Amino acid sequence: MAGTLALSGCSSKNDTGAGPSTATTAAKAQKVDEIAATVPDDIKKSGKLVVGVNIPYAPNEFKDPSGKIVGFDVDLMNAIASTLGLTADYREADFAKIIPSIQGGTFNVGMSSFTDTKERQQSVDFVDYFSAGMLWAQRPGSPIDPNNACGKKVAVQATTTEETDELPAKSKACTDAGKPAIEILKFDGQDAATNAVVLGQADAMSADSPVTAYAIKQSNGKLEAAGEIFDSAPYGWPVAKGSPLAASLQKALQHLIDTGDYKTIASNWGVEAGMIAKPTINGGTS
Asked: Where is this region: Disordered (predicted)?
């Protein structure tokens, strides 16, 4: 999640009549000996990649009706682990505790839609695997301009960057120009924010681009994008500072990009817009 250590989320049920799609055509990646050989010995010997995750945040990581952790990030990490000759071992944690747990050695890697930022790079290294920005959604036939939403009601999940940074700045620009402020409607969960738009309680919603794209996909035509994706930044997997695991993950991801498995996984979850061509380490610049 961009900027703050807060994480927005979307539960697996909502009032639009369509829960998240949990069907997956996850690519069945095979171990690549040359890449697996680069994994740090202690992880190699354990046979497991211990992954810290915070849920729900559909479509990236959330639970299906049976309680299994699923999503774009999950399918991709499973394929990464297979390429490295490992099995992903997911451990749930508070979002704000994942990076400290990586620093302390409890987790090998984090997987929770982390935006790679200069500030976080002081604590961990990031292997960037996706590009996400912000994207608004609206009801069809009720157009709204994200850059001129003065006097409108906009739904967000509380404590996300959209609530703490984006909308207050846009609202201030409105009032500075003598126009009415944006009414920011805060909800505990992303599903509630999405439903507020569908039900007409809000004019629009703002969330991370894959979250909004997924909400639109699941709404059965009740939502559409308002404007384009903006303020894009990389999502990255955090690992311990200086750990050789970063290079192993980078090589495994490049392999999945080259084989087309990465595209298969992204397409399955409707997040192709954020695909990257070349993974970097600590590529975040803001």
From this structure: 1-30
